[in-house]
Amino acid sequence: MIIAGYSSYPWAPDWKKFREIADAVPGKAILFADIAHCAGLAIAGVYPSPIGYADVITFTTHKTICGPRGAVILTTDEDKANIIDTTVFPGEQGGPHANKFAAISVAFEIAQRRIAKCFATNDKENSEIKISADQIFVNIQPLSGSIANNSVYEAFV
């Protein structure tokens, strides 16, 4: 299994390259993509989506999708889906929060609308704003040199 996805990664992953690597593994490795921190950006089309490349995709509903706290596991493979279903519930998790179902559905509906694309685009663009040293009296530089999503890690020099 190749696990791709990042909590602290300001660049865009190359999902196609990950897929090529997974396919090159003898027996074909499962490609697992975690997009918890950038799912809303991917849905809005301002960040690469692993759909069509990853065998399994996970993300949260409360970060860039702006819904209530929750998580999603996606796959189009029925065998993998059955394994995930029987392992996660009731094995690892129980007692789903039924009171959140409607709110998560609304968050997904909103995530598909133009307003969500505006939010995601602004979120990404705000991460790229450069603050000059004379404005704040401190020289701030991105540690990564560039930014492809809403993750910003700065070095105070």
Automatic annotation (TrEMBL):
<dbReference type="InterPro" id="IPR015421">
    <property type="entry name" value="PyrdxlP-dep_Trfase_major"/>
</dbReference>
<dbReference type="InterPro" id="IPR015424">
    <property type="entry name" value="PyrdxlP-dep_Trfase"/>
</dbReference>
<dbReference type="InterPro" id="IPR039429">
    <property type="entry name" value="SHMT-like_dom"/>
</dbReference>
<dbReference type="GO" id="GO:0030170">
    <property type="term" value="F:pyridoxal phosphate binding"/>
</dbReference>
<dbReference type="Pfam" id="PF00464">
    <property type="entry name" value="SHMT"/>
</dbReference>
<dbReference type="InterPro" id="IPR049943">
    <property type="entry name" value="Ser_HO-MeTrfase-like"/>
</dbReference>
<feature type="domain" description="Serine hydroxymethyltransferase-like">
    <location>
        <begin position="1"/>
        <end position="128"/>
    </location>
</feature>
<dbReference type="GO" id="GO:0019264">
    <property type="term" value="P:glycine biosynthetic process from serine"/>
</dbReference>
<keyword id="KW-0663">Pyridoxal phosphate</keyword>
<dbReference type="GO" id="GO:0005737">
    <property type="term" value="C:cytoplasm"/>
</dbReference>
<dbReference type="GO" id="GO:0004372">
    <property type="term" value="F:glycine hydroxymethyltransferase activity"/>
</dbReference>
<protein>
    <recommendedName>
        <fullName>Serine hydroxymethyltransferase-like domain-containing protein</fullName>
    </recommendedName>
</protein>
<dbReference type="GO" id="GO:0046653">
    <property type="term" value="P:tetrahydrofolate metabolic process"/>
</dbReference>
